[in-house]
Amino acid sequence: QSALTQPASVSGSPGQSITISCTGTSSDVGSYNLVSWYQQHPGKAPKLMIYEGSKRPSGVSNRFSGSKSGNTASLTISGLQAEDEADYYCCSYAGSSLRVVFGGGTKLTVL
Amino acid sequence: QVQLVQSGAEVKKPGASVKVSCKASGYTFTSYYMHWVRQAPGQGLEWMGIINPSGGSTSYAQKFQGRVTMTRDTSTSTVYMELSSLRSEDTAVYYCARVGEMATTGGAFDIWGQGTMVTVSS
C-alpha cells in the first residue's frame, strides 16, 4: 500500500498562513472521512492536531484547520508562530481491518 | 493521567527478534484499540498494525506479515509488539498509539507512547 503524497517541505514567515496538501486515492482519503494530521517536533512523539479531516481535539489552537476535497486533504496553519516549526503527517484509514496509511511527512520551516 | 509507557531501547543483531512493550494507565485498557507505528532515522511514520486489547484480534500491514506479532496482557494492561528476523532496515523508533473514541477523535491516534529505539547492528 503506497503512502499518501505530501510536499517534502513548506515555509512561511511569522504571521503568514501555509497549507500542506495530502493526496491519496479513492481507496483511502477519498473513501473515508477519517483523515487525521499529526505534528512532530524533533525527538518527540507525534501529536494529534486534526481528526475527521477538519475537527480539532480539545486544546489544539484554532490556527490549525483542515479540509478535504476528493482524494486530497489539506492542513492550513494561520498566523504562523515559531513553535509551529515541525514535521507534519497526514493519515487515513484505508479499507477493512482498520488498516492505516501515512503521508511521507512535510517539514515546516518558519522563516 | 492517561499515558502509554514503553520499554527501553534495544540493540539486536541481524536475524534476532525484539519484543517491545507498551503499558497503558489512566483508562480502561480493553476499551481502546492500539496501533504500532515505526519511524526510521530521518524518515516518516510507517504503520505496522493494530491490536484489539479486548479480544486480542490483530491486523498487520502487508509489509510485516509473517514477521510481526502483536499480543496483549490484560492483567497488566500491556500490549506487546514482537518483530522477528531483524535486519538493518528495521532500525527505527517504535511507537504504540491508542485509537481514540470516535465521538471525540474520529478514531485518530490520540495518545502516543514515548517511543522505543531499536537498533539492528552486527
Task: Summarize this entry quickly.
The complex is a heterodimer of chains A (111) and B (122). By secondary structure, chain A is mainly β.
List the helices and strands and how they pair.
The complex is a heterodimer of chains A (111) and B (122).
Chain A: E1 9-12, E2 18-23, E3 36-40, E4 47-50, E5 64-69, E6 72-77, E7 86-93, E8 100-102, E9 106-110
Parallel strand pairs in A: 1-9
Antiparallel strand pairs in A: 2-6, 3-4, 3-7, 5-6, 7-8, 7-9
Chain B: E1 3-6, E2 10-12, E3 18-25, E4 34-39, E5 45-51, E6 58-60, E7 68-73, E8 78-83, E9 92-99, H1 102-105, E10 109-112, E11 116-120
Parallel strand pairs in B: 2-11
Antiparallel strand pairs in B: 1-3, 3-8, 4-5, 4-9, 5-6, 7-8, 9-10, 9-11
Strand proportion of chain A: 35-45%
How far the N terminus sits from the C terminus of chain B, by CA atoms, comes to: 40 Å
Globular, elongated, flat, extended or rod-shaped: what is the shape of chain B?
Answer: globular
Question: What are the secondary-structure elements of chain B, in order, as H or E?
Answer: EEEEEEEEEHEE
- Report on the biggest sheet of chain A: 6 strands, mixed
**How would a crystallographer describe the biggest sheet of chain B?**
7 strands, mixed
Multimerization status = heterodimer
The DSSP helix count of chain A reads: 0
Radius of gyration of chain A: 13 Å
Shape field of chain A: globular
The number of helical elements of chain B comes to 1
Mean pLDDT score of chain B, rounded?
96
Strand and helix order of chain A: EEEEEEEEE
Poorly predicted ranges of chain A (pLDDT <50, ≥5 residues)?
A: none
Look at the helices and sheets of chain A and give the structural class: mainly beta
Work out the helicity level of chain A.
under 10%
User: Largest interface, and how many residues on either side?
Assistant: A-B, 28 and 26 residues
Q: Which structural class best describes the helix and strand composition of chain B?
A: mainly beta
- Terminal Cα separation of chain A, in Å? 35 Å
